[in-house]
Design a protein that fits this description.
By secondary structure, the chain is of the alpha+beta class. Among the domains are: 5-171, PAS domain (Beta-Lactamase, 2-Layer Sandwich); 339-492, Histidine kinase-like ATPase, C-terminal domain (Heat Shock Protein 90, 2-Layer Sandwich), CATH 3.30.565.10. It is built from ten helices and twelve strands. Strands 6, 7, 8, 9, 10, 11 and 12 form a seven-stranded mixed sheet that branches. Strands 2-1-5-4-3 form a five-stranded antiparallel sheet. The protein is rod-shaped, with a radius of gyration of 62 Å. The protein starts with a helix and ends with a strand. It comes from Ruminiclostridium cellobioparum subsp. termitidis CT1112.
Length: 495
């Protein structure tokens, strides 16, 4: 069972208060009376010295001084002559015959006369005798002092023990009441003191628990000039260092995961690439092999069939050669083996020349191709002319291969800030939304059957992506209501 620090502090300090209060009561009840006796004896010795001084040095005022001593110190006084006759007793006003002799009615209990001679015989002038005695007549104990003032005068001092005992009992009762008060009041003070001392520790413990679950938001904000304040500053510093270190570790871990994912994707792409290349080459190789074997075995003797076989072999060889060249170009672009040979030229001229070179192809497909420069007759860009021509040609080829019955291809050139945006629109079916990102991958075709109807290799858009990245420019595709729009950007040459 865990005991909180607040409970431990309260129990410890409260227990100490109770212990010292109880110890004080025990010591008071056992030693206080003895202490009072000791102090009473000292007081009686001092009284004796005072009486002796008064008697020897101020005999004219002896009555007044003795009454003053009696009143202030509460001690009974009896004087004896050398025959042990009383010449003065406490609180009497009548003088007896003869100098310094007074006859009184006894008010204080008289000592045992039979033992007076023995008692005073043991007394030296500077060493009075002190003892405790019991008076049978008054049924009470007294502290008695027997002293010798000179050879003819002796003095007896007496003080009741009951007063000492009563004073001790009153003192003990007072200590009990004050002890109870101290226990209650001290307990309240200790409770709040324990609360105040443990509050910052509890708060630090809460911060440490949050740090254990990697929550570093809370900080110790109390300003103290003690060890707890130093501990709070240390925990804040540790929290900041852990937060920074864990943040760096998370970043490094995230980068590592990205690298691992990238490696995995590269490995998947490599496998897919090999599979795609194998698939793309399998058909032309099979055709070449088949027709070559047919020629070798003279399957058809007529010249027309032999020519057809040769044309098929040449066509398939050209297709394989075209695909290999595109793969090499794509590899060189992706691995930065080719740096764009930038120059300044007019993009309008690039578009018109490309359209003019491919006019026969457009006519063969029955496509209606238009170019709109948005009123900008001379838009100059900074780029690699050959690579930009390749990007435009790939977009046009892709558009031609996906035309619908409208057979419309529109080209636009627009200036936007410090960029020129070239757009190629073709009428036809939209690209599925889930395929818009994937069409830029090598060998990806929306047509899963990989039709050879138009002889596409699936590398054209991958080459566009690589060229645009080499130029550090954007590219993209958007589905329109009646077709698809591909676009790419170039750096505008101003002024």
């Amino acid at each position: 069972m865990k005991i909180s620090l607040k409970t431990q502090l309260f129990s410890t300090f409260f227990g100490m208060i109770v212990f010292f209060v109880v110890l004080s009561l025990i010591l008071s009840s056992t030693l206080l009376e003895k202490y009072y006796y000791s102090k009473k004896e000292d007081a009686m010795l001092q009284t004796f010295d005072s009486i002796r001084d008064v008697y020897n040095h101020d005999p004219d005022n002896v009555m007044f001084d003795l009454e003053k001593i009696e009143s202030l110190r509460g001690i009974g006084i009896i004087f004896f002559d050398k025959d042990f006759n009383i010449i003065y007793q406490s609180r009497q006003r009548v003088l007896s015959a003869g100098a310094r002799k007074f006859r009184v009615e006894p008010r204080e209990p008289a000592p045992d006369w039979r033992n007076l001679r023995d008692k005073f015989s043991k007394v030296a002038p500077d060493k009075p005798l002190i003892e405790k005695r019991f008076d049978m007549r008054m049924e009470s104990s007294f502290v008695s002092l027997y002293g010798k003032i000179d050879d003819d005068v002796f003095v007896y001092l007496g003080s009741p023990v009951a007063a000492i005992q009563e004073s001790a009992k009153i003192a003990v009762r007072f200590y009990i009441f004050t002890g109870i008060f101290m226990v209650i009041f001290g307990g309240i003070i200790i409770y709040f003191l324990s609360l105040r001392l443990t509050k910052p520790i509890i708060k630090l413990n809460g911060i440490a628990k949050k740090m254990a679950v990697l929550d570093f938001e809370e900080k110790y904000d109390e300003k103290r000039n003690d060890e707890i304040g130093t501990l709070g500053d240390s925990i804040n510093s540790l929290s900041n260092q852990l937060e920074r270190s864990i943040g760096e570790l998370k970043a490094a871990n995230y980068k590592l995961m990205q690298d691992i994912e990238k490696e995995r994707q590269i490995d998947e792409m490599r496998k897919e690439f090999i599979s795609n290349v194998s698939h793309e080459l399998k058909t032309p190789i099979a055709l070449v092999q088949g027709y070559a074997e047919g020629l070798k075995l003279n399957v058809n003797d007529d010249e027309e069939n032999k020519n057809y076989y040769c044309e098929v072999i040449i066509d398939e060889a050209n297709k394989m050669n075209n695909m290999v060249r595109k793969l090499l170009a794509l590899s060189e672009l992706e691995f930065n083996r080719i740096e764009p040979d930038r120059e300044e030229f007019c993009v309008n001229d690039l578009i018109r020349n490309t359209l003019k070179k491919n006019s026969l192809l457009f006519a063969e497909k029955g496509a209606s191709v238009t170019f709109d420069d948005n009123g900008n007759g001379d838009i100059r860009i900074n780029a690699d002319y050959y690579l930009m021509e390749q990007v435009l040609m790939n977009y046009l080829s892709n558009g031609l291969n996906h035309l619908d019955e409208k057979k419309i291809i529109n080209i636009y050139a627009r200036v936007s800030g410090d960029k020129v945006r070239v757009e190629v629109f073709n009428s036809g079916a939209n690209i599925p939304e889930e395929a818009l990102e994937s069409i830029w991958l090598s060998f990806y075709k929306v047509d899963k059957a990989r039709t050879r109807a138009y002889g596409g290799t699936g590398l054209g858009l991958s080459i566009v992506k690589a060229i645009q990245k080499a130029h550090d420019n954007s590219y993209g595709v958007e589905n329109k209501t009646d077709g698809v729009l591909f676009w790419f950007e170039c750096d505008l040459v101003k002024g």
